[in-house]
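## tool: complex_structure
## caller: assistant
## args:
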Amino acid sequence: MKAPWLLVGRHLRAHWLRTGLTFGSLFFALFLFCLLVSLVTTLDDAIRQSADDRVIVQSAVSLFVDLPLDYQPKIEAVPGIERVSKFQWFGGFYQSREDFFAQFGVDHDRLLEMYGAEMGLLDPEGTVSEAGRELAQAGLDADRRACIIGEGLARQYGWKVGSTVPLQSGIFPMRDGSAWEFNVVGVYRPLKRNFDDRTIFFRYDFLDETREAGLCDGGPGVGVYSVNLAEGADAGQVIAGIDRIFENGPQKTFTVTEAAFQQTFISMMGNVPFFVGTIGGAVVFAVVFSVVNTMLMSSRQRAHELGILKALGFSDGAVGTLLMVESLLLSLLGGGLGVGFAWVSQEGIRVASGAYLPTYAVNPSTAGWGLLIALGIGLVAGLGPSVAAARLRPVQALRSEG
Amino acid sequence: MALPLAYTVRNLGVRRASAALTAIGIAMTVAVFAGVLSLRAGFEQLYRPRGDVTVAMYLRPGAASEGESAIRREQADILLKERPEIERDAGGRPLAAAEVFLAVYMEKRDGGLTNTPLRGIQPMSLELQGERLKLAEGRWMEFGADEVVVGRPLTERMAGCQLGEVVTLNMTPFRVVGVFEHDGAEGGEIWGDAERFMAALDRPVFQRVVARVRPDTDFAALKAELEHDTRIPSEVMSEPEYLAAQTQATGGMLEFLAGLLTVIMGAAAILGSINTMMASVAARTHEIGVLRAIGYPRLSIFLTFLLESALMGLLGGALGLLIALPFDGLETGMANFQTFTDVSFAFRLTPLLALKSFGLAFLLGLVGGTLPALRAASLKPVEAFRQL
Amino acid sequence: MIRMRTVTKRYQRGGQVLTVLDQLDLDVPQGDFVALMGPSGSGKSTILNLVGGLDLPDAGRIDVAGADITAMSEAQLPAWRARHVGFVFQAFNLVPVLTALENVLLPLQLQPLSRAQRRQQAEFALEIVGLKDRMDHRPKQLSGGQEQRVAIARAIATDPDLVLADEPTGDLDRESANAVMGLLRRLNAELKKTLVVVTHDAVAAEHARRVLHLDKGVLAREELNPSPGQAAPAAGRAAR
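## result:
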């Protein structure tokens, strides 16, 4: 199809302000779209990516009630179980309360094995390898104050193997007011997208000893037990089996799959995801309108010029296509950049949101949808004007202003 | 000196579709702004301190909220009996109570689990609440019995919290014998006898001591004194301070969200209105020349275009408020990230917030209209005529 | 009324400097009716813009109604213009969103008059041009000729001494053109307004008393019409 394609670029440049403004609106809209959708998918992902061969044993009453230590052997006796580890929430912070991230006291001899699919330990060269795991395990075994930290923390605070991390705890404060000190023996990299890269794992036995010695506050017990199922075991049966044992106390248990456990946290956020999603939709809708508006304005102004083109001999189709191409170009560029920016800002947002969205990520499919929407906007916005342009009668057009 | 208002208003009408679309963009921004902030207002409304009396909270040192706190029975006893700042009633009893607090799992009516605040109280707790507390249905629980009363919002949002139903804690059933209303955060809690709770949960610790203290209490000095006390080390704070700490995390997050969304949407809305106004100026170039020829000064031209954009903004503002208005009073709940419990509250669109929203709309229109208005005003009449 | 002395005006067009008026001298006595004619680029519209204070010359002096407008500041010109000059353009004179009456009121808004006074003067102006019965109509409800007459009403609403018209009949058919020119002639004859009309239409020019031909920015030729308007007798009857 012969058409003066040159005009497309020239027009966009000639009306640089209008082009820029429309471009900007598209940029913001698509960026926001990706941001909001990603907030929701991040939450969903957490559930979808949960291990299906792991269950969490917790108190049926509250997340904040501990389970007795003697529950562990009883759980281990249930058929279908491969391994159990304690998980005690430490409730600590680094220098100020805002430096907030998760810390857990765990069974150091089992953690790496149980979470092999989620945590990859880094060797001195910085790659995930078996050597890295062996070194980390050796470190955990040797030092009572040993801890493993996530890559995100290593990056943020500059900690590495050999560093000492001082922490204050809200739940187990040292009676003399001093800080707990842990020695980093390994750095892990999450192997699954929903696994937080800003967690510290230390030895539960060290915590327990310190408490028994009267050096810190806090009660005996364990927050939750993490249980890896044996191959081929049925999660439902294991769950029922565990809860049955403790039906009559002293603490009733509520065992759930890891996915369900994650879901609880999300559920607590109430309707926020819903509101956020609705807002996202509204925003995109509003901006689409504004872009359509722009295209209409632009085409109305160019009736005269289009009339000249037709008088010169360009076909109706060519003239119509000219406008459509302009619309598509603008939308794809503006929208595309918005999507692109959402993509590159993932890390920044993850860090900025601190502990709230440790696993924030933009899915490739979200980005794909964003681009599709940008394309769609271009098509919708360009449709009216391009059809009108195609149908324009030259004589009429030449008489109008412009 | 000024161009007639009719001129401005009718010009908006000429480019009806365009102006409407831009106004919608502004309306959306304002609606989101008002919506998120009324969510925050509703949330913070729960945490207003009582003005009439001075109340203090005693927690474990280092604890920022009840959830992190633990006070042993003996410590609680000493606090209640021996602290001089705590006021006493006519009979000499300290106007203070030790309370148990725990976020317990409960099923929501519409599915999903959430952390509901459970509070074990002492008889004095009821007196301390004063007028803020009202019994709405049934009766207060009997101390010593396995009975609870629930806050009104819970009866609607949670499963199994209606009058006569049973709430099971660990293995002990507690019957719901009453429904209460409280205008603070406590309004969405389940209350029962602290002793019975401690027994049922096998958790013999209190979480806080709440007391009415002398109005002239020097909190700073009190803090310093108790922080390192050997028998009863405590973190003590005034009620306003305590409440502020509770809302900080969630309130801060909502404020951040409102800010982020408003900036992004506002930017898009401004861009939209600049676009519309620029087109308006471009289409009326000759007209501007004629007005200048008649003798209207640049300032008039500037003001009329600015006004046009501002009007569009106000229209958007009105529309946006209309969208946000139905949310006012809508009951909802969300997690207080600080205490990790669910709080029930309603959206609150205060008159001040409505005013601010209007102001935002006006501002958006104004900012969006400035550049085009400047362009219109700076047109030389001769240029304006040449455009045609 | 108008005195131009050694007026020079240059324009930049595409990197080149064009001298449109070169040390032009021009006089228009009070009560005169002058038509400016000449090929495109001869500077006739430029003269109108300069005399009306819409633009300033690069050199020379212009006195209008006794005032040296070349010495006025940018801020003073609009106010002066509002009081002393009425403009009529070839097309798009009227503001589309305002009615005829409101359009005529526009220049009056700038004068310190009461609302009643303004309305009175506006209606009077419309009556003169014979369109008082259409005063609540919008421009799109008027014919081309009627639009131009409303434009004239607006131009005389503040009772200025000088009326400047740039191709007022350019877009009109012969009948409407004659009506408009006839009206202008009446303004000059009966209301004693000084008129300067730029036109390329020789027939329209015949309504004027003097016709000045310009070529390349200088006065090439001057003609006198002893009995203006007589050349097109049909015009008089079609004025209604």
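## assistant note: Residues 38 and 271 of chain B are 26 Å apart (CA to CA). The first helix of chain B runs from residue 5 to 14. Handing back to user.
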